[in-house]
Amino acid sequence: MERCTLCGGRLVNGRCVGCGLDNTKNDKKYHLNTHNEKSAALFHRGDCEDHLNKDNGYGDNWPWKRKKQPATAGLEHYQRRGATAAAGSFAGTDAGADTASARTSTSSASSYVPQGTARSATSGSVTVKSAAARRRELKQRSQTGTVRKKSGTGRFVKILLLIAILLFVVFPIVTQKLIEYRRSNGGTDIFGGSAIQDEGPEAIAWDQNDERYYGIALDPGVYEVGYDIPAGEYQLCCAGLSAEVCWQEADADKSDYTELMLYGLERQATYRDFWDEECPYHQYSDRIALSEGTLFVVETGLDSDGVELEGLTDPGAVRKEREPQPGLEEVQVTEGLIAGQDFPIGVYNLMLDNADDEYAYGSVSVRIDRNGKTIEAGADSVHPVFWHIPFTGGEKIRIIYQNDNGGAHLVPSF
């Protein structure tokens, strides 16, 4: 007796009385737990195991791995569908449900309008929206993120370009016009007032016939009052464009020293013309008193040409002669030299190597730490010697700047 191939029930005219399966068609339609040879012939050949790791053409682009489509995907499809339904509705070819479907499609099509296109389905035709409606639509889309806002990079670049034009083109022209105006009106500023011209201390008329009269031009270097300069009362004058000097009394505190900046007439005029105000620097100094043992330093700079010192010595003051310095030799300047350890103590000049080479510009600047007071010395092709640096022992030399032609030596001063 045959039984149902699915549940094992009794068959009546080939149909199971238990589950109702028609077992007469089992061999043709149902192939439970068997290999379908027809499907194998259609889709692949050979055993299924041969196709387990075979590339199926998808690669990494499996349907469930694909990126999520944007909100506007299928937009053209809806537009075509809406346009077709609207045309059918307008022609009267459909009625009832078809008309409702066309209206729904038309409404869907009107809601999926791509950027740059405006459509209306109220009359079954395509129309262009007004400019105001278009602006409102773009504003709404920009707020919802549908339309990307323009980047501010272009505006930032334009602002930078405008600033550059003002700085490098307009500002120099305006400054030059102001300078010409002030010069043509005798120093009067642009608002009609007179510019204050404080020339500073005037030159002192020293009696050069006085036996105590003393004058000397000092190049950049260190000068000890009593040896290089006799003690007395003097006035300083800038010999070039600018000069910077400082001095420290022999019995003063380590940090107690005086600084003075002097400007020549040419530099003062440039300062006043450019800034349109009083120049704080002057060509002459007030009277200064230099006592014996004071270290007077004339510093170096790009346009420093030293100072001229003129005045009267103290009563009985004389310029003493230095004693010879036996055992001193030239020393190549390197970083970290210490006086008394790497070279003998004494008074040296900092001298630039190859100073006579007119085709090679050399420059070197060093810092010398001396008893809490820092001395900065420099030599270049314009001023190849920095004079009279005293080393008493323990001073360390630090190189601040040195170019390729900036080699230098310490040479005994006397």
Characteristics of this structure?
single chain; 414 residues; alpha+beta; Jelly Rolls; 4 domains; four-stranded antiparallel sheet; 7 helices
Can you describe this structure in just a few lines?
The protein is α+β, with helices and mostly antiparallel strands and 414 residues long. Strand 1 and strand 2 form a beta hairpin.
Q: Which CATH first-tier class of the largest domain would you pick?
A: Mainly Beta
Coarse shape: elongated
Poorly predicted parts: 89-125, 188-196
Q: Provide the helix percentage.
A: 10-25%
Total number of distinct structural domains: 4
Q: Within the CATH hierarchy, at the fold level, what is the topology of the largest domain?
A: Jelly Rolls
Structural class: alpha+beta
Count of β-strands = 17
> From N to C, what is the helix and strand string?
EEHHHHHHEEEEEHEEEEEEEEEE
Beta content comes to 15-25%
Rounded to the nearest angstrom, the distance between the terminal CA atoms is 139 Å
Note the total helix count. Answer: 7
Q: For the residues shown, what is the average pLDDT?
A: 76
CATH architecture of the largest domain: Sandwich
